[in-house]
Design goal:
heterodimer; A: 135 residues; alpha+beta; Tetrahydropterin Synthase, Chain A; five-stranded mixed sheet; 5 strands; 30% helix; B: 143 residues
Chain lengths: 135, 143
């Protein structure tokens, strides 16, 4: 089994805010992240599979890029996550919830390979990993 | 779901076992045995795990996790001599530093999430992961 990881980027604005809580409670939980701000996100997607006998590849990287671009990057890049992406109109756009969103968009998207991990770096000091637990 | 926060700090150490002869120390630790010490810019990656739902959309809120990590690590590691801060007799290899930090962080994180692993990147060529004595599946370690 080979684990293949591809790295891509998107830039987006968001804030961490639960509508049912007061501004003070939101500030207590999320700190300055409760104000609208933005990130250069780095996305790493890892797929597991066996290399094709003729190409030697789990998946051709340009095919993978096209899938991730259409299903994820085009949905998120240069967007306000909380206003432009349907799921985050009701969910909080933490890096953890973003990892779940990307998982749901990419699971079963690549013929012959299984999505193994979604990693999203929010900045150079933190990232979330999702392996599809409970999915 | 796993959340990892990254801290970086500058620290000095020397690898020298007082029960070894000088010759044995140099043979074992090479250039790291310089008694005057040397230093690294260490990267520490602390990974916690837990369930995430719409009602609890985080493993630990990032600002909370950052404060826990900073409160534990800064007094120990910021511009520190690792041979001193962890007490006499501590041999500050990457392996031992990873274990020592795990034991400092675990009680501080308890009640917020489960500590999954502590990864120390000593140089571009060396990194060490401690994931407790049992440890999770290697395929789900954040390395």
């Amino acid at each position: 089994m080979i684990y293949l990881t591809r790295k891509m980027h998107f830039s987006a604005a968001h804030r961490l805010y639960v509508d049912s809580l007061s501004p003070e409670e939101n500030r207590k939980i999320f700190g300055e992240c409760s104000n609208l701000h933005g990130h250069n996100y780095e996305l790493e997607v890892t797929f597991a599979g066996e290399p094709d006998k003729t190409t030697g590849m789990v998946i051709h990287l340009s095919e993978l890029d096209a899938i991730v671009k259409e299903r994820v990057i085009d949905q998120l890049d240069h967007k306000n996550l909380d206003e432009d992406v349907d799921v985050f109109k009701t969910e909080v756009s933490t890096v953890e919830m973003l990892a779940k969103y990307v998982w749901d968009r990419l699971e079963n998207s690549v013929p012959g390979a299984r999505l193994h991990r979604v990693r999203i770096w929010e900045d150079d000091a933190s990232f979330a990993d999702f392996y599809g637990e409970g999915r | 779901m796993y959340l990892t926060v990254v801290s970086r700090f500058n620290a000095a150490h020397t690898l020298w076992n007082p029960s070894f002869t000088e010759e044995e120390n140099i043979k074992t630790f090479g250039e790291c045995a310089n008694p005057a010490g040397h230093g690294h810019r260490y990267t520490v990656e602390i990974t916690v795990g837990g369930g995430v739902t719409s009602d609890k959309p985080y493993v630990v809120p990032r600002p909370v996790m950052r404060k826990i990590v900073d409160d534990v690590l800064s007094p120990k590691l910021r511009n520190a001599n690792l041979n001193v801060v962890f007490g006499n007799g501590f041999l500050p290899t990457g392996e031992n530093v990873a274990k020592a930090l795990w034991h400092l962080l675990e009680p501080a994180i308890e009640g917020h999430a489960s500590l999954v692993s502590v990864r120390i990147v000593e140089t571009q060529k060396n990194s060490f992961v401690y994931a407790g004595e049992v440890g999770p599946d290697i395929k789900t370690l954040p390395i």
